[in-house]
Amino acid sequence: MTGMDEFLDRLDYPMYVVTAVAGEERAGCLVGFASQCSIEPVRFMVWLSTANRTYRVASSAEFLAVHLLGRAQHDLAERFGGRTGDEVDKFAGLAWREGPAGTALLDAVPTWFVGRVASRVEGGDHVGFLLAPAEASAGPGDRQPFRLSDGADIDAGHPAKDT
C-alpha cells in the first residue's frame, strides 16, 4: 500500500515482554503491538504472532503478564525477542517468580501488570488478547520505556511467516 510503509517507519512504540503460563508450560516474547484500548473499564490489548510459541501457550492461559521494559533492558529484549521458545527455554538462568493467578513475573522488570484474558481477536498473522487488569506494579526503575528503535539490532527469534 502506497505510503503505509513510510507511515509505519515513523512509529517508535514501547516494547513489552508478555509471559504466559498454561499448565506446566511457560513462555514469553517481546511484543510491540500493544496498547491501552479502554478507559472505563481499563482494558489493554496485546497482539501475539501466531507463529510464536508464546501465542500457543497464551491460547490456553487465563491470565497474561505484561512487563514494561526500561530503556536499559536491551538484554531482556534480546532474550525474549531474539530467541524462539521452540528451541530454548527463555527463563533458564533468569530470575523470575510466580505472580498473581500463576503468571510468570520477571524480577528485573518492576513495572508490570497481570490481566485476565477477556477475549481474543483475530488480526491477520497476530491474535489480539484483550486483557482486564487484575493486579499491577509500577515499581522503581527506568521511567523511559524500551522502544522499537532501541531494539532495531534484534533479529526476531521466530521469523514472520512467509506471505
Give me some keywords for this one.
163 residues, mainly beta, Pnp Oxidase, Chain A, seven-stranded antiparallel beta sheet, two-stranded antiparallel sheet, 3 helices
The stretches of 5 or more residues where confidence is low (pLDDT under 50) are none
Question: What proportion strand?
Answer: 35-45%
CATH architecture label: Roll
* Strand arrangement across the biggest beta sheet: 2-1-5-8-9-4-3
The CATH superfamily is identified as: Electron Transport, Fmn-binding Protein, Chain A
The count of DSSP E runs of length 2 or more, i.e. the number of strands, is 9
Number of helices: 3
| Average of pLDDT | 91
Taken in chain order, the helices and strands follow as: HEEEEHEHEEEE
End-to-end separation in angstroms reads 15 Å
Number of domains: 1
Helix content: 10-25%
Looking at how many chains there are and whether they match, the oligomeric state comes to single chain
Q: Major sheet, described briefly? A: 7 strands, antiparallel
The chain-level structural class is mainly beta
The CATH topology comes to Pnp Oxidase, Chain A
Global morphology: globular
How much is the radius of gyration in Å? 15 Å
Text of the CATH class:
Mainly Beta
Organism: Streptomyces xanthochromogenes
Domain Flavin reductase like: 8-148
Protein name: Oxidoreductase
Pfam families: Flavin_Reduct
Describe this structure in words.
This protein has 163 residues and is mainly beta. The protein is built from three helices and nine strands, in the order αββββαβαββββ. It has one domain (4-140): Pnp Oxidase, Chain A (Roll), CATH 2.30.110. The strands form two sheets. Strands 2-1-5-8-9-4-3 form a seven-stranded antiparallel sheet.
